[in-house]
Structures are given as structure tokens and as C-alpha cells.
Design brief:
CATH class: Alpha Beta
CATH architecture: Alpha-Beta Complex
Strand content: 25-35%
Order of helices and strands: HEEEEHEEEEHEEHHEEEE
Structural class: alpha+beta
Largest sheet: 5 strands, mixed
Distance between the termini: 78 Å
Shape: globular
Radius of gyration: 24 Å
Length: about 200
């Protein structure tokens, strides 16, 4: 059998398979590609619909928007979000949310020794990987804890997908934008290693 016809037959099968993979209808008859749903060239915004709290806690917990709204709410009042250079990035009449400590109190810190709070800290991470840190002392022993908020509304409107859906903001920071997390996905509680004896 000549090689050329076999290559042609294989090429035909490859084309048919590629076509089936890239234009097969989904349950709602919408076309899709192997990379996901057909979209425009603009990237989709990173959005959070829930925050998972884990690590050195007594019980891992996930908070969706409804769960957050059941916790005691707090409003920031007028707030300018300022970047490292001191330039105002955006402003708001109000952000609405819940204190970061409210979520941590629900899951409860797991501190094996009485003084372990001195080495406890929380990493807050967004969908894009941006991560910020708060120590136990900041959250429970300074005004920063009062202003470290998991936010879901700005100016009496839900945070849009472009704003991340659920976010974190530290209103008492001098440069608020540096510890602002859009599309907050997870809070992970850690204990710093104790010094070697």
C-alpha cells in the first residue's frame, strides 16, 4: 500500500478529531474549544465567590457571600486607596464587609502552647496569587485589626467581577493599596517556627 494515501487518511482523521474537540456542542448547545468556553480576546476578570480559611485552625471553613453577610458588618466611611507612591488609586464613600478577625474567631486559632499567639500570622491570598500578611498582634492588639476587613460592597453596591467579588482591605494602613487583595480566595493561618534552643 502506498504511503501517501495513508498520510492523507491520517490527516483526514486528525482534522475530524480536531474539529470534534473544538466545536462539539455543550449541554446548552454553546460551542467550546479545548481551552474552555468561547470568549473574546479580553481576559476574564479574576473573581472570588468564597473565602477558604485553613492552616493552624481548629476547623477549616469556607465562607461564601451569604455566610459573610450573616456576620456582624462594618462600614469604612470615606476611604482613599493610596498606592506606594502616595497617589490616590481610587476612593469610596463606604466599603462594607466584616472584620478579618470575625472569620478567624469562627474557625478558632489552633495554638498548642499558651504563648503561641506571639508567633501566629495570617496570609491572605487573591485569585491572582497576590498575598499579604497580618500578625496576630496587628489583628488583636492594634487598631489595624479593627480596619482589616473582608469586603463585598463599595458605595452600597456589590463589588463587581472586575473588582473581584470579595476582597480584603486594611483601612488603617498608610498605603491602603499595598494590603488590598482583590478576589480574595484564601486565608491561611501559620505559626512561625520557634527559635532553636
Amino acid at each position: 500500500m502506498p504511503i501517501a494515501p495513508r498520510r492523507a487518511q491520517n490527516a483526514h482523521l486528525t482534522t475530524a478529531l480536531t474539529t470534534a474537540l473544538t466545536v462539539a456542542p455543550t449541554a446548552d448547545d454553546a460551542p467550546f474549544t479545548r481551552g474552555g468556553p468561547a470568549t473574546s480576546s479580553a481576559p476574564l476578570p479574576l473573581t472570588s465567590r468564597e473565602v477558604v480559611v485553613s492552616g493552624a485552625v481548629k476547623r477549616r471553613h469556607s465562607f461564601d457571600l451569604c455566610a459573610l453577610m450573616r456576620l456582624p458588618t462594618q462600614l469604612t466611611g470615606p476611604l482613599d486607596v493610596v498606592c506606594l507612591s502616595g497617589r490616590k488609586v481610587r476612593g469610596a464613600s463606604d466599603y462594607k464587609g466584616v472584620r478579618l478577625t470575625a472569620l478567624l474567631d469562627v474557625v478558632q486559632w489552633r495554638l498548642p502552647q499558651a504563648r503561641d499567639f506571639t508567633r501566629a500570622y495570617v496570609l491572605a491570598q487573591g485569585a491572582d496569587g497576590y498575598t499579604v500578611m497580618f500578625s496576630w498582634h496587628e489583628l488583636y492588639n492594634t487598631p489595624i485589626g479593627v480596619g482589616a476587613l473582608i469586603v463585598y460592597e463599595r458605595d452600597a453596591q456589590p463589588l463587581s467581577d472586575e473588582e473581584g467579588g470579595i476582597g480584603l482591605i486594611s483601612t488603617w494602613d498608610l498605603r491602603v493599596a499595598l494590603r488590598q487583595v482583590r478576589a480574595l480566595k484564601r486565608l491561611t493561618v501559620h505559626l512561625a517556627e520557634p527559635p532553636a534552643r
